[in-house]
Amino acid sequence: MTQEKFWNIAGPILLIDSGWFMLYAAYKYDEEQHEKMDWENQEWAGVLSQWILPEAPWWVLRMVFAAIGVALVSIAIYHWTSILL
Fold it and tell me: How far is the CA of 47 from the CAs of 28, 42, 62, 65, in angstroms?
């Protein structure tokens, strides 16, 4: 199996798995989870995590997670359909 064939199969599978994970994160993220977050001690996003994320409503982050999930799954479906058609 060539590398191109491998990534034509494995790439979309990874995208779909990541997309479903993000959709699940969006489904489980609620106001209680948002309040539990210790935004001041988050270093993964730098200034964003300390200034913007604590002020953003929980539903905004939920929509961002859902949008990322839908985008990843859509890219995978587009990739597979472009190969098949």
Answer: 25, 9, 20, 19
R_g of the chain, CA atoms, integer Å: 17
Query: CA 85, CA 57: separation in Å to the nearest integer?
Result: 42
Judge whether 19 and 69 are in contact, CB under 8 Å: yes
pLDDT in tens, the chain (85 residues): 788 888 888 889 999 999 999 999 999 999 898 888 877 676 766 776 677 777 889 999 899 999 999 999 999 999 988 887 7
Q: Is 4 helix (H, G, I), strand (E, B) or coil?
A: helix
pTM of the complete model = 0.81
